[in-house]
Amino acid sequence: GPHAGTSPHADVAQWASMFPDCGGQMQSPINIDTSSTSVSLELQPVELAGYRLDPREQLRLENNGHTVVLELPSSLTIASGYPQEYRASQLHLHWGSPEGPGSEHTVDGRRYDGELHVVYYNPSYQSIKEAMRQPGGLAVLAAFLQVGPEDNEHYQPLLEQLPEVQEKGKKTTVDGFDIKGLLPTSLSRYYRYSGSLTTPPCYQTVNWTVFNQTVLLSQKQISLLETTLQGDHEELLQNNFRPTQSLHGRKVLASF
Ligand SMILES: NS(=O)(=O)c1c(F)c(F)c(SCCc2ccc(C(=O)O)cc2)c(F)c1NC1CCCCCCC1
Ligand SMILES: [Zn+2]
């Protein structure tokens, strides 16, 4: 986990002074206490559409100094599992270091090795810049990454490009591939709660889905993620997760 002050993503009081929402009562990430979730049978399986991207489609991959971001076409949508359709904007990852795990959400106090976020926006707004300011404007699908016995081929198109974007600000392109392969096989078992962006401006406009099933990557793949990218001042970009935030009475729903 992060040592005080060295984590590039440290969530210190300064965020709230510069970005007031960061001090709000509906912040993310959170610890999911599975004994206090409520089952809601209204939560249908999440269904994606347009996720098999044409390999001729070039997707931009960028190290923005805080994470590695893959831009996604708005033709990738959430077709069900949410009150209305959402369109994709980008996906990015959170990870730890060889010293410890780096998921943002925790489950019963357990932090996983990493976490995938696929960020969507409500298309009834003109752009994500507008949507992210509106309640229900954003939906983020979150999946835990965990060390398993073998390589996860679905992650290779992303991971093999990390050396190309080692320095902050570096960009490259990735051929379109099957985005659904990055998510767990079961999209029917998940937690749902209302929260926020986990980085400034921390807008409290995110309808979160945290899948119950984890995604397995090899130790080699997780280590590549933990030891390749640089943030500010050529330091290794590690532990880019925000500490868990208080629920302030929010309910966490479970689809199972
Ligand atoms: N977990 S999360 O979804 O809150 C999240 C993070 F935790 C993140 F850490 C990030 S990256 C940090 C924010 C950032 C910094 C620089 C640049 C740039 O130079 O282009 C862009 C963004 C990051 F990009 C995101 N997601 C973004 C939040 C930024 C504004 C809305 C756009 C899509 C979602
Ligand atoms: Zn994120």
Give the C-alpha Rg: 17 Å
Task: Give a list of the ligands.
Answer: the ligand NS(=O)(=O)c1c(F)c(F)c(SCCc2ccc(C(=O)O)cc2)c(F)c1NC1CCCCCCC1, zinc ion
Topology pattern, helix = H, strand = E: HEEEEEEEEEEHEHEEEEHE
Q: Point out poorly predicted stretches.
A: 1-6
Question: Would you write up a description of this structure?
Answer:
The radius of gyration is 17 Å and the shape is globular. It has four helices and 16 strands. Strand 8 (106-107) and strand 9 form a beta hairpin. It has 256 residues and is mostly beta strands. Residues 1-6 have low confidence and may be disordered. Zinc ion is lined by residues 92, 94, 117, 198. Zinc ion binds next to strand 7.
Please summarize what this structure is:
With 256 residues, this protein is mostly beta strands.
What topology does this entry show?
Layout: H1 13-18, E1 31-32, E2 38-39, E3 47-49, E4 58-63, E5 68-71, E6 77-80, E7 86-95, E8 106-107, E9 110-111, E10 114-121, H2 128-131, E11 138-148, H3 156-159, E12 171-175, E13 190-195, E14 206-211, E15 215-218, H4 219-228, E16 253-254
This protein binds ligand ETK and zinc ion.
The ligand NS(=O)(=O)c1c(F)c(F)c(SCCc2ccc(C(=O)O)cc2)c(F)c1NC1CCCCCCC1 binds at residues 64, 66-67, 69, 89-90, 92, 117, 119, 128, 132, 140, 197-199.
